[in-house]
Design a protein that fits this description.
5-stranded antiparallel sheet; 845 residues; 3-stranded antiparallel sheet
Length: 845
């Protein structure tokens, strides 16, 4: 048996087991493998591939017979075999007694036809669009009375119109055939579902009927005779083809393979793959996945390797090869169930247990899952042997009945233990409703067995076990993906920062990208698990692939074509365009613009405007990929303008104002401005608003329209120079010339006060109790004005005290009338702390 035949049979058997969710067969029709159906369709569709190729040259090309045919004729010739195939399938579907294998064969013929029709339709649409574009370039024919055009243009227009009409007719025919093919696909799916339901709900003898078991006992010798015949055929094959040297070589190769596998497993089990921090969710889920893969792959790989060695030496017949492949699948099912139980519940290893359950609960659930998987694997292998030896149908039904009864007994025993242990309900979340659902399932399977619906009972048992295993594995992988992107690849973790540095991203971008990637991966995992779980209930594997193909090639809404491919490409364009824009912005900000003579605010404007342009360009290209041309975008913009007129004026006004600020730059990043009673330094100019930072480190968000329409004081519009002044007063008996000299000396001595223009001292007036002076100077940076002013004030106080110059405080005399003795009094405060002294006012004044 050649190796490629062995691998092909393995893939077919595995596909059948997955599509049926590892459910034992319920009838002979379900046990038969689908014949190869791709060859006729491929032969029928071969000319279509050649005819569907699109090229820019419209000249006729030679065909196989040497005659030159136009491209359109070749396309129509390619459609004819597809039409014949569709008509043959339609005729065959009129028969009322079609089996599932025949329907699968028709489905295999129909799918290549649909693919070829999609290519032809796409080719015709492209060619028709090209012809219409050329007609638009030529324009309309001149009307009567207008100047006549060149005859060559008239002939070219007539030729293009004729070609457009022909292409349009061919396109309509192809679309009509595509519609018929789609309808056939739906009919085949409905027939398969109806057939499955009929076989599933087919009634046989009750499992409690002794006569049924007597018939099964009578059929057992026939099955055993078939097994003996298969064994004799294998022995005859070995005697005829296998020599002593070949058997010896095969034995040595098999022994060497098993020895290598044993050494590898011994080395593997001695290695400690435990993460350093085993208490985290990531470490537990990582070890759970490692245990699941190790247990699931090890035993099937050894069995399959041994099978390949025997087949390589030609020691297997076709029947023995099929039985061996079924043994591999059965071992894989049992190993998968054990891997899920060990990975999820980890009996005996509470430190790496993914679910927070107690040890006795973990051992109980894991043990039941392992035994259920072993039982399912044994039934799969037994049904395969019965199918190979062509055993009577009674034995298959009896096997399904025994399988269902054993699973019901196992489930009821588990539910009884759960009910007797109060602690289990506290350990497992939702144990109450899970136990209720388990009892309902058990009652349903028992009722099906008693009433004779053995196929339904076997289906429920198999689907229940498949759901347990797949959902358990899905939980392990989902937990691992979630922990990977929430505990390991985060902006605050060393590994997350290392990954961000490797890809040239910001650390905070890792969190966002991780969330998106995690969501996509988890969605794909859920879809992968749903396919075998749904099975014949809703979507067959081929139907699911057909739905994905339809979504990939798309559907039309009016003139707009929407497909999964175009959506993914548009999303990729937006993502790549945005990332490229951000990368160029980073290069401009860090490498190019700092080397220019532009001031920092203009550099920020250039970088920001480039970011807007890049994002808008990416969105425009994505819309073009979806089929939305610029005329439609104009219509959408016109519709949006109505909404803008009703409720988005302020948003659009702020956006346009932000563009004006970036282009005109009346306010720049770093300027110190005063607006609406707030003063601070401009930190950022966003699309909608501008952020300024006040002196107390608070951020004030001001809409951009306020900065354009309101009066704004920009203290650093032209430069950062600023004039700072200190006002003070000295007593009337002070030497004003000396005061002026002292103030100028203080201002000139400060290192941060500009000497050109020089500081100035002005006598500003005569107060009630002091002569008023103003010392003014200019600083280079407005932000340094406060600190310099403080230094100058300290110096003035120190020098004035040293020179004996007095800065008086105000004196006030208060005259109080209406005292009891008729005399007035004056209150003269001795200090600013209001400690008054009462003085008698002299009489006669």
């Amino acid at each position: 048996m050649p190796i490629h035949h062995l691998i092909r049979h393995a893939l077919v058997a595995l596909a059948l087991c997955v599509a049926a969710a590892a459910v034992p067969s319920v009838s002979i029709a379900q046990e038969k493998a689908a014949p190869k159906a791709d060859a006729p369709a491929s032969k029928a569709a071969a000319p279509a591939k050649k005819g569907a190729k699109v090229g820019e040259d419209e000249q006729p090309e030679p065909s196989k017979d040497g005659a030159k045919r136009p491209r359109l004729s070749r396309t129509m010739a390619a459609i004819e075999p597809l039409r014949e195939t569709i008509e043959q399938i339609e005729t065959s579907l009129r028969a009322p007694d079609l089996g599932d294998s025949t329907l699968v064969q028709h489905r295999g013929k129909l799918e290549p036809v649909r693919d070829e029709l999609r290519e032809i339709i796409s080719s015709l649409e492209s060619r028709l669009a090209d012809v219409e574009t050329r007609l638009k370039q030529l324009g309309e024919a001149p009307e009567e009375g207008e100047a006549k055009e060149d005859p060559n243009l008239t002939a070219e227009r007539a030729r293009l119109e004729e070609r457009r009409s022909a292409l349009d007719g061919a396109l309509k025919q192809a679309r009509l055939l595509m519609l018929r093919a789609d309808n056939l696909s739906v009919r085949i799916t409905e027939r398969r579902r109806a057939l499955f339901t009929q076989e599933l709900l087919g009634r046989t003898s009750s499992a409690l009927d002794p006569g049924f078991w007597m018939q099964a006992a009578k059929a057992a010798p026939d099955a055993w005779h078939g097994v003996v015949l298969v064994a004799q055929g294998w022995a005859d094959h070995l005697r005829a083809t296998a020599t002593a040297w070949k058997l010896t070589a095969a034995g040595l190769a098999l022994a060497a393979f098993l020895a290598c596998a044993g050494f590898f497993l011994r080395w593997y089990f001695r290695r400690d793959f435990r993460p350093k921090q085993l208490g985290t969710r990531f470490a537990k889920s990582f070890f759970a996945i490692l245990s699941l893969i190790r247990v699931t792959v090890t035993a099937p790989a050894i069995v399959f390797g041994a099978l390949l060695i025997l087949n390589a030496f030609g020691l297997l017949t076709e029947r023995i090869g099929n039985i061996g492949l079924t043994l591999v699948i059965a071992v894989a099912v049992a190993a998968f169930g054990r891997g899920v139980a060990v990975g999820l519940f980890a009996p005996g290893e509470p430190d790496r247990r993914l679910l927070s359950v107690k040890e006795d609960t973990a051992r109980l659930i894991a043990g039941k899952l392992i035994w259920a998987a072993r039982i399912l694997a044994a039934v799969i292998f037994l049904n395969a042997v019965l199918q190979t030896v062509v055993a009577p149908v009674t034995l298959t039904i009896a096997t399904n009945a025994i399988f269902s009864a054993v699973i019901v007994a196992l489930l009821c025993h588990f539910l009884f233990l759960m009910g007797s242990r109060v602690s289990l309900e506290d350990d497992v979340a939702g144990a109450g409703w899970l136990r209720s659902a388990g009892w309902l399932l058990s009652i349903g399977m028992i009722a099906a067995l008693v009433t004779g619906y053995i196929g339904l009972a076997a289906f429920l048992a198999g689907r229940f076990l498949s759901a347990l295993g797949l959902i358990g594995a899905l939980y392990i992988f989902l937990t691992f993906i979630d922990a990977l992107f929430t505990e390991v690849l985060t902006a605050s973790s060393p590994k997350g920062r290392a990954v961000a540095n490797f890809f040239g991203l910001k650390p905070r971008s890792i969190g966002l990208l991780g969330t998106l990637v995690s969501a996509v991966i988890r969605l794909l995992l859920v879809l992968v698990v749903l396919m075998p779980l749904l099975g014949p209930w809703g979507i067959f594997a081929a139907d699911f692939v057909g739905v994905l193909k339809d979504a990939t090639f798309g559907f039309r809404i009016g003139e707009l074509s929407i497909s999964l491919t175009s959506i993914l490409i548009a999303f990729a364009i937006v993502l790549i365009g945005t990332l490229a824009t951000r990368a160029v912005q980073a290069w401009l900000n860090t490498r190019f613009l700092p080397q220019t003579t532009l001031d920092p605010s203009l550099q920020n404007s250039v970088s920001t405007i480039f970011g807007y342009v890049g994002v808008i360009a990416a969105i425009s290209l994505a819309l073009a990929q979806l089929g939305v041309d610029f005329q439609k975008i104009t219509l959408v913009a016109g519709a949006l303008s109505i909404g803008i007129g009703f409720g988005l004026q302020s948003v659009v006004s702020n956006f346009v104002s932000g563009l004006i600020l970036l282009a005109e730059r009346p306010i720049r990043v770093g300027d110190i401005i005063s607006v609406k009673g707030e003063e601070g330094r401009v930190r950022r100019i966003h699309v909608r608003a501008t952020e300024i930072e006040t002196g107390d480190r608070s951020s004030v968000i001001i809409p951009n329209s306020e900065l354009i329409t309101q009066v704004v004081k920009n203290r650093t519009h032209t430069d950062t120079f600023a004039r700072v002044a200190v006002t003070l007063g000295v007593s009337y008996d002070s030497d004003v010339v000396k005061v002026r000299e002292i103030l100028l000396e203080i201002a000139k001595a400060h290192p941060h006060i500009m000497q050109n223009p020089a500081p100035s001292v002005l006598l500003t007036g005569f107060g009630e109790s002091a002569i008023n002076f103003e010392l003014g100077w200019v600083v280079r940076n407005l932000g340094d004005g406060g600190g310099i002013k403080s230094d100058v004030c300290f110096s003035i106080l120190e020098r004035f005290r040293a020179e004996g110059i007095v800065m008086p405080y105000p004196h006030r005399y208060i005259h109080i009338e209406g005292l009891a003795n008729g005399d007035g009094a004056e209150l003269e405060p001795e200090s600013p702390a209001l400690e008054p002294a009462v003085k008698k006012k002299p009489k006669g004044r």
